[in-house]
Amino acid sequence: MTDLPETKDLILEPQGSVLTIWFNRPEAKNSLSSEMVSELHAVLDVAAQDASLRTLIIRGKGGIFCAGADIKGFKSGLQDVEPNADDVARGNRFFGDLMIKLNEQPQTVVMLVEGAAIGGGLGLCCIGDVTIVTRDAKFRLSETSLGIPPAQIAPFVTERIGLTQARRLMLTGARFKGVEAVHYGIGHMLADDSADMEKKCAEVLEQIALCAPRANAVTKSIIFEATRRPRAEALDFASRGFASCMLSEEGREGVTAFVEKRKPKWANE
To answer: Which residues of the chain have pLDDT under 50?
Structure first.
């Protein structure tokens, strides 16, 4: 595995082909400080170049996933200096860049959500390839109750749950829990508690292990290009990805393993 960057607000736990990234500000309910966002940017940049990494797991220390933006830190910053609108917009957009990067990360991204996922934390739930939530986890898009819009997460939440539910949840700040989160499509799987969440995560990791790493990465790129390009262009892009994978060492191994009725090498790694 490539050497990972030093971090203060994140704890990094590599284990084989899986990297677990822990939000580590439990005293602040793992709210997203600018330092944490910068650290996560750096970790994702390194991970994206590491072909040995197949899965990223993101979760929070202290029994809570993420309480969203660090509002107290932002308020303190306003007192220290008088920012202009461009500075504020630039800082906000920096988190949007993180959302894009994490959303399109070549690895499979698994979100383990317990305790609470508020504001930006809920936004992060919406970009997990697999998001597992506990039954009692609390969710809310609280930004408008603070006098601000859910600016950078709005496109991702809307894409995940649809326009009508996104409008309702953003414009009312409605509170809900894990069952509703799965119903809305924010979460894919409902766990009874933390122990059950760990069990379900282990099952997901077993499923991911059966999938070829590069094929998964190319599949994610095809999915996103399908949302951005006209249909014919998207299919052209997909055909090139298919050819690249089919002719690769990974593709040849997959076909050979199928013919020989055995597991491919990556499934045993």
So the answer is: none
